[in-house]
Amino acid sequence: MTHISKRAVLSVGSLGGTVSMQAAAPGQGVTPTLDCLGLLAVVPQLAELAELRTATLCLLPSASLGFAQLFEVLAWAQAEVEQGAQAVVITQGTDTLEETAYFLHLLWSSPTPLVLTGAMRSASQPGADGPANLLAAAQVGLAASSRGRGVLVVINDEIHSAAKVRKVASLAMAAFASPGDGCDGYLLEGKPVYRQPGAACSVLPLPTNRGHTVALLEASLDADTGLLEALPRLGYAGLVVAGFGAGHVSASWAEALQRIAEQIPVVIATRTGSGPTATATYGFVGGEIDLRSKGMLMAGRLCPRKCRILLWLLLGCGLEQALEEHLGQY
Ligand code: ASP
Predict the structure, then answer these.
(1) CA nearest neighbour of 12 among 42, 44, 39, 45
(2) Helix axis angle, 67-82 relative to 97-107, nearest 10°?
(3) What is the pLDDT of residues 171-202, one digit of tens each?
(4) pLDDT of res. 129
(5) pLDDT at residue 200 in the model
(6) Distance 94 CA to ligand 1 centre (A)
(7) Mean pLDDT along residues 207-235
(8) pLDDT value of position 4
(9) Nearest residue (CA) to ligand 1, atom 7
(10) Atom 6 in ligand 1: which residue has the minimum CA distance?
């Protein structure tokens, strides 16, 4: 009797991005053209790892992705898992990868790995990194040690938690980092090696309200308060400020923000790119003690962009009162 072993199933969905970009003619700029089958065609090793299922979910530069598309990606990935996928890999542009990964992470309740990847070199460049990143994402996703870690970003042979990863360089090959703790793991001879446990994160319910908006503004030297004065009339449901240093703004911003915080949640993050906001160190007007006393929350280690996503999702499911508790997880 022949023994037929059941092969693992890997689902790959593509959204566009540099990994899928090519130039129509020499000297022209690259645009997203390769569909999912086109991406897989140059990585024959994938078919040795698993039975493949593919879907071209859209073909966009990642700057033009939106929350609505991410809900579709989530539903597609969940359906793939229900239909037996042992891992799901999404390819997309790297420009917004840190935000899409965190958005999906907050809603991904399955222990099945959902792995996001992309590329810094287009498909038409010599030494394109897309095929290697795609293979690495599949290897990580299919490994038993990746289960229960939520959404992962695999790029440049590193494995990052969706909650911590940031794009830290515009064009370099080593464009991603997890400032502070470093990456969660790396690939060694095609296998993931984890150096720390997965980031704890409570999964949120699907938001029922999706029509609201959350603004993100950055503090800068001698900035006027014009935008802050206008903000209450624009209908935003929340505001995140990328503040100076440990979560600070100017005295004039502190006053304007106080008026906004009387109406909607206002969160102060750090614009530095690394490290937490303070809670009880600085006593000047616009420092964290003052801002907290004026009704604002401090973002802790969560970067401004991820903070906006968290606040948007919490507002969408009526859980904004839990914002401080969620921020405390990072
Ligand atoms: N430069 C970007 C990328 O790495 C373009 C995008 O995000 O779509 O894919």
Answers:
(1) 39
(2) 50
(3) 999 999 999 989 999 999 999 999 998 876 78
(4) 98
(5) 63
(6) 5
(7) 98
(8) 56
(9) 93
(10) 93
Beta bridge mates, 218: 242
Closest-lying ligand 1 atom to the alpha carbon of residue 18: 9
- Position 256: which residue type? A
Ligand 1: lining residues by beta carbon, under 6 Å: 17-18, 61-62, 93-95, 118, 120
For residue 211 the two structure tokens come to 């029509």
Q: Which of 95, 129, 167 to mutate to test the pocket of ligand 1 (most atoms within 8 A of CB)?
A: 95
Q: How many CA atoms lie within 13 A of 217 on its CB side?
A: 22
Task: Report how far residue 267's alpha carbon sits from residue 314's, in angstroms, rounded to the nearest whole number.
Answer: 13
- Give the residue numbers marked as catalytic: 18
Q: Tell which one of 15, 18, 134, 155 to mutate to probe ligand 1, the residue whose CB is within 8 A of the most ligand atoms.
A: 18
CB-hemisphere CA count at 13 Å for 211?
Answer: 1
C-alpha span between 91 and 95 (Å, rounded): 12
Block residue for tokens 């645009």: 31
State the DSSP string of 89-122.
EEE--STTHHHHHHHHHHH---SS-EEEE--SS-
Instruction: Enter the tokens of residue 195.
Output: 């150096």
Task: Name the residue with the closest Cα to ligand 1, atom 4.
Answer: 94
Q: Looking at the predicted structure, is the pLDDT value of residue 1 above 70?
A: no
- And the tokens for 291? 């801002």
What lies within 8 Å, CB to CB, of 195 at 6+ separation is: 182, 183, 184, 185, 186
Of 38-47, 110-119, 191-200, 309-318, the one with minimum mean pLDDT is: 191-200
| Nearest atom, ligand 1, residue 97 CA | 7
Q: What is the CB-side half-sphere exposure of residue 243 using CA atoms within 13 A?
A: 32
Shortest-distance atom of ligand 1 to CA 60: 8
